[in-house]
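ESCALATION

Customer reports they have been waiting on this structure for their group meeting. Please prioritize. Original submission:
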Amino acid sequence: MDLVAGLFAAGGAGFLALGLHLRRRTLRFLARAARAEAEVGDATARTSALSGGSDHSRLRFTTDDGRVHTLESRLGLPGGAYARGRRVAVLYDPDDPGEAVVDSPLELHAPWLIFALLGAGWFAVGLLLLIPWF
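Update from on-call: job pushed to the front of the queue and completed.
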């Protein structure tokens, strides 16, 4: 039982650390990001062992210096997360416009939040299993 508890606690600590690292990266990105308006184009199909497949909306935006860039939404849904032709706000790194994301709480914060919550939960389970009376 101690081995299982240790694995939960160690795995949880690892996921929690990864989540906190991703959060720090997101906050640094937000501090330097510039905003642009993007137009949603076609969706790109991706396959995954976990979900089978999903469509990621492709967006096209112009930076402040006039360069045109494209990005794929992090959110994959059947048909794409955003309707074709819709205009949405994106945030991008002015020094590296290839690093861009749709300006939505879900797309900005879901990755780090998922890892942090999963890690905290696993860590808590590991600690509870180590308590002799539990």
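Sent to customer with the following note: The chain has a mean pLDDT of 89.
Escalation resolved.
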